[in-house]
Amino acid sequence: MSSTFYNSVYDFPNYMKIIDRLNANIPNDPIPTCPHDIYSEKCDHQSFCRNFVLAQRYLSDLIKKESTINVAHACKFLIYWIYKFVWNDDIYNKNISNFYEQIKKGHDNKDICKIYMEDIDEKTYGYIQKLIKLYSDLSNLPTLNNGKKCSTIKTCFDTYMDYKDTCKDDEYKNFCNELENFRIRYNVAIKSVNNCGEEQKYLPSFQDSPIVPVSVIPIIITSVISLILIISCKFTPLGKWICPRSKRAKNGTKKINHEMNKSQHTPGYQDMSYLVSYQSPNPS
């Protein structure tokens, strides 16, 4: 499952509205388009045939609106919808990619969802459902009266807090990353809600603070000690006890260097250097 699948879930309620609109315009006995050569037994089920037609119409709608929608989110919703509403019975083989290949026929090879097609498992589907419930409640918040708003806020808060232990496990990292996105949207939304008292609480983050690598710790310690010594020398009474020796050593080094430089520029020093290196071949 792609790590980016969860971050499209907040948009799913909007695409579900498209499905509902299209479904309302499909007659009870739609023109059969279900490919019997591919889904021989499945096409005998009226619900499967209807969903096949509905999926075709949804895909056609996406193609028409391609320039005005988030195609990635719309296609990922289609994956979720196929899993939930088409492969909702064990008699069907939950091969989403194969189903997509069938519904896209007749669209002049306009294959806008192919790069997003992937199969999802039961666990992923379950966590998508949890996120959809949270986002659906949040999206409905502006339309509710004050009493209903307060109860919805409390439900969102309690549901979110139920996942605190879940997010301690790296296995659910992608789900918890999207849960963090929900937290941010929720905290912004409730700012405009008044008179809910204790029920109106901001959601805390479950994200861990960054961990400092072990290799960096000695560098940090050294830097802190150096900073403390500098401050102690300059700004505290302890400075005269901590720093005199280092100052004397530093001054002594400067004095030696000065004397060496001075002696190098005297004639005696230069001649001595020459005499040391020269020996006469005829000693007396």
UniProtKB/TrEMBL annotation:
* Keywords from the UniProt entry: Membrane, Transmembrane, Transmembrane helix
Query: Which residues does the annotated region (Disordered) include?
Result: 253-272
The UniProt record lists the keyword Membrane: yes
Report TM segments.
Answer: 211-231
Task: Please identify the protein, giving its name as recorded.
Answer: (malaria parasite P. vivax) hypothetical protein
